[in-house]
């Protein structure tokens, strides 16, 4: 039956799989959540490194670890929500357009993620924000491609 409501013969081909593998938009929700998680992780790591959250002058190592984990978690949650909204309203239409044109390479996905996140951050926060989001945007674009096109040759 493989996802349909009618019975198909045992040897019938799966209609959801083309000769090049599954369609990428079949994996869109998982790909977008994964990309948001990757972008948020990149933001959290950069934020901790830039603010020195991993250094605690005069504090015990346990205090530094727990405060670092707390900072990472808070920044990750906020960044994941921002990335998810951006992916939904900007990334998904761009992704659908690029896929329709047949432009599905991992390099293009990484470049699009980098450019779109930097552009959005630059519009809302200026040049420092755009520079801050270069690497997390690249991670989000690469992850989205990796999850959406799993099993397909690139």
Task: Kindly summarize this structure in a few lines.
The chain is an all-alpha fold and 154 residues long.
Helical amount: 55-70%
Number of helices: 5
Question: End-to-end span in angstroms?
Answer: 29 Å
Question: What portion of the residues fall into strands of 2 or more residues?
Answer: under 5%
Major β-sheet annotation: 2 strands, antiparallel
Characterize the overall form: globular
Secondary-structure-derived class? mainly alpha
Q: Please give the radius of gyration in angstroms.
A: 19 Å
SSE ordering: EEHHHHH
Strand order of the largest sheet: 1-2
Contiguous uncertain segments of 5+ residues = none
What is the β-strand count? Answer: 2
Mean pLDDT: 80
Describe the structure.
The chain has 154 residues and is mostly helical. Helices cover 69% and strands 3% of the residues. It has a two-stranded antiparallel ribbon with strand order 1-2. A hairpin with a 2-residue loop joins strand 1 and strand 2 (21-22). Helix 2 (61-101) crosses helix 3 (106-125). The longest helix is centred in the middle third of the chain and has 41 residues, at 61-101. The two termini are 29 Å apart. The model has no long low-confidence stretch (mean pLDDT 80).
Name its key features.
single chain, 154 residues, mainly alpha, two-stranded antiparallel ribbon
Give me the secondary-structure topology.
Layout: E1 17-18, E2 21-22, H1 28-51, H2 61-101, H3 106-125, H4 127-132, H5 134-148
Antiparallel strand pairs: 1-2
């Amino acid at each position: 039956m493989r996802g349909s409501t009618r019975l198909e013969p045992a040897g019938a081909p799966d209609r959801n799989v083309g000769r090049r593998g599954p369609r990428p938009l079949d994996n869109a929700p998982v790909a977008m959540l994964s990309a948001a998680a990757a972008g948020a992780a990149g933001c959290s790591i950069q934020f901790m490194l830039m603010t020195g959250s991993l250094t605690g002058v005069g504090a015990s190592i346990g205090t530094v670890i727990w405060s670092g984990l707390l900072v990472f978690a808070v920044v990750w949650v906020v960044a994941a929500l921002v990335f998810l909204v951006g992916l939904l309203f900007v990334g998904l239409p761009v992704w659908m357009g690029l896929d329709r044109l047949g432009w599905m390479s991992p390099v293009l996905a990484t470049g699009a993620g980098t450019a779109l996140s930097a552009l959005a951050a630059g519009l809302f926060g200026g040049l420092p924000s755009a520079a801050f989001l270069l690497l997390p945007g690249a991670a989000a674009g690469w992850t989205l491609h990796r999850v959406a096109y799993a099993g397909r040759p690139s």
